[in-house]
Amino acid sequence: MARVVVDVMPKPEILDPQGKAVTGALQRLGFDGLTVRQGKRFEIEVDGDVTEDRLEEIRKAADTLLANTVIESFTVREETVADQAANR
Predict the structure, then answer these.
(1) Signal peptide span per the entry (predicted)?
(2) What is the pLDDT of residues 7-52, one digit of tens each?
């Protein structure tokens, strides 16, 4: 079974209070020089092959439901076998 990943992030000009809170907590814990922007990750299991038509369908789903495109941007990519192994 193939997997497609949709990563959703706040647009650069949008304030990110969650990311700012995490950045502050990391600094208090001694992790200096790190800035966090917090987003969302969706993993979509796809029956059959991931074709360009299927990716376009997932992009439409992301644009319609998964991301608020007024304040967020998103990327869609097929996850490779190596990606899946690294995430375990």
Answers:
(1) none
(2) 999 999 999 999 999 999 999 999 999 999 999 999 999 999 999 9
Q: What is the 3-state secondary structure (H, E, C) of the chain?
A: CEEEEEEEEECCCCCCHHHHHHHHHHHHCCCCCCCCCCCEEEEEEECCCCCHHHHHHHHHHHHHHHCCCCCEEEEEEEECHHHHHHCC
Q: What is the pTM of this model?
A: 0.85
More confident residue, 85 or 40: 40
Give φ, ψ of 21 to 5 degrees.
-65, -40
Range of the domain at 61: 2-86
CATH number at residue 55: 3.30.1280.10
The CA-based diameter of the chain, rounded to the nearest angstrom, is: 47
pLDDT (0 to 100) of residue 46: 95
